[in-house]
Amino acid sequence: MMFSFLRREVRVGIRTLLTFILGVTLGLFSVACGGGGTAPPPPSPPPPIGVALSSATLEVNQGGAPASVDVTVTRPTGTNRSVALSTPLLPAGVTAQIDSPGVGDNGRITFTAAAQSNTAGTFQVSVRASDGVSTGMASLTLTVVIVARVGTPVGARIDAFMSTSFQPASWTDDFFVRHPEATQPLDNLHPQHINVQVLERDIPQLTAWTPSAPDTWDFHYIDRILNPIFTAGDHSPLYQIAMAALFMYDAPGHLRDTTYQEFADYCATLVKYYNTGGFTDGGGVEHVSASAWPITYWGIYNEPNINGFTASQYVNMYNVVVPRMLAADPNLKFVAVELADFSDEPQRYLPTFVANVTAPVDVVATHYYSSCNQRDTDQQLLDTVPSFVDHVNYIYSQLQSKPALANVPVWVTENNVNADYSAGNGMSNCNPGQPFVTDLRGSSAFFAAWRPYVFSRLTQAGARALHHWGFNADPQYGEVDGGTAQRYLSYWVDYWLARYFASPPGSDLLPLDATDTATVEILPTLQDDGTVVIMIANHAVRSASDNNGTGAPRTVLLDVSALGTFTSATQLAIDASTNAATGPTPQAITSTPQMEITLPGYGVTFLTLN
Question: What pTM was computed for the model?
Answer without folding.
Answer: 0.87
